[in-house]
Amino acid sequence: MTTSHPAPFGRALCAMVTPFTAEGALDLDGAQRLAERLVDGGCDGLVLSGTTGESPTTTDTEKAELVRAVREAVGDRVHVVAGVGTADTRHTVELALAAEKAGADGLLAVTPYYSRPPQDAVEAHFRELADASGLPLVLYDIPGRTGTRIEPRTMIRLAEHPRIVAVKDCAYDLLGTQRVLAETELAYYTGCDEYVLALYAIGGAGYISTVANATPRHFRAVIDAFDAGDTDGAARLQRLTIPLTELMMGSGLPGTVTVKALLGRLGLPAGPVRAPLRPAGREATDGLVAAYEELVSAVSAR
């Protein structure tokens, strides 16, 4: 059993955190070590400088340095997708060209935020970005953060552009998603960990997961089971992730904060978050570790 839509960046992608040193500087060595762990854990691709990667608080230079360092660490084994979205079309184009020069395989661009452009302006923004670079583009639809949706009809029109190839879907509109899947060849990646199996089962390409920073093998196992025809097994594996996903993504703390807290406790590269984010407290971190250990134990017992 396989999905019906293409997966231009593979099926199992991680929205990687951006490791920092204890002093808050970019930790390129840590980024390389984390990237290698994720690839060894089954990731087909790494998405850098997205929401989880703290893109609002990293500089343009840091973003390019991160792409170069991760590319050096993983070589051509996996796809490297660079987040370039900003509220400013010109700035977004500049970041796209810098990411292309640094060695990225693709671009991830969020809908321009705060100014809340109407749909014709949203469409023009993404077309200008796709025209500016030779890299394939993933549209990042997350209206809960940007305040602006990429409406399904806008998505369908944008799919006509040869370099607009995929969507990171955080719109929580399964009906709209199915409409676009039915009318285009866009590769849909869920950006919501609780929807990994649901979207994949209706023809999605895979996922761009935050939780996979800590558990890359587990989410890969979900889609591998589905591809093997073991739909019951895939559903069981998806359900096993509920406690950790709920604590990591639905506890009132940003995913970046919870992921870095868990990675830090596990001795993996992460470091602090940058202000205005604040670190998770001891109680929250203890809960994350307990849920992680429970998941690992449950998988081992299968």
Explain what this protein looks like in three dimensions.
The chain has 302 residues and is α/β, with parallel strands linked by helices. The chain has an eight-stranded parallel barrel, surrounded by five helices. It has 13 helices and eight strands. It has a single domain, classed as Aldolase class I (TIM Barrel). The model has no long low-confidence stretch (mean pLDDT 96). It is globular, with a radius of gyration of 18 Å. Helix 3 (89-102) links the parallel strand 3 and strand 4 (106-110). 48% of the residues lie in helices and 12% in strands. One of its GO terms (cellular component) is cytosol. It is found in: Cytoplasm. Pyruvate binds at residues 52, 208. This is 4-hydroxy-tetrahydrodipicolinate synthase.
Q: End-to-end distance, in Å?
A: 22 Å
Strand content: 5-15%
- Strand order across the largest sheet: 1-2-3-4-5-6-7-8
**Helix proportion of residues, in percent?**
40-55%
Unreliable parts: none
Topology order in helix (H) and strand (E) letters: EHEHEHEHEHHEHEHEHHHHH
**Secondary structural class:** alpha/beta
| 3D shape | globular
The biggest beta sheet reads:
8 strands, parallel, barrel
Domain tally: 1
Annotation, overall tally of beta strands? 8
CATH superfamily: Aldolase class I
